[in-house]
Amino acid sequence: MKNNKIVCWSSDSVEMNCFDYPLNNGLMVNEYDYGGAVSYLIYNFTKEGKQQINSELFIRESLDFEDDTRKCPEYTIDGEEVEKDIFEQERKEKILDHVLKRSLWNVIGG
After folding, report:
1. Which of 5, 75, 76, 105 supports an S-S bond with 87, CB 3.0-4.6 Å?
2. pLDDT at 29
3. Which class for 75: exposed (0-12), middle (13-18), buried (19 or more C-beta within 10 A)?
4. How many angstroms separate the CA atoms of 3 and 27, rounded?
5. Residue 27's Cα: distance from chain center in Å?
6. Residue 76: beta bridge partners?
7. Tens digit of each residue's pLDDT (9 = 90 or more) over 28-74
8. Secondary structure element (H or E) that encloses residue 24, with its range
């Protein structure tokens, strides 16, 4: 926070599939999209500037390759497996209902 504004810096110049974004409730999301899966780390920063994790959501609905042995589909909330409808409701309540409008973002530098 700087001058009552959230200031973020996040760069994934290698894979280009990981990004952070603010929510309108003061929380942040680190979203990582890879191999048919998406993980969401919902967090905030303490007054001391340390990252505090609030929740983790994970979804896999497709596999990378034909003989992939990972579970699919898979839906977890904070490490616990849940049904798809429960996952979708949690994602809606924790993330989608709070996405900050892009018009409120300002690019600084670049």
Report:
1. 75
2. 94
3. buried
4. 18
5. 10
6. 58, 81
7. 999 998 888 999 999 998 888 888 999 999 999 988 888 888 889 99
8. none
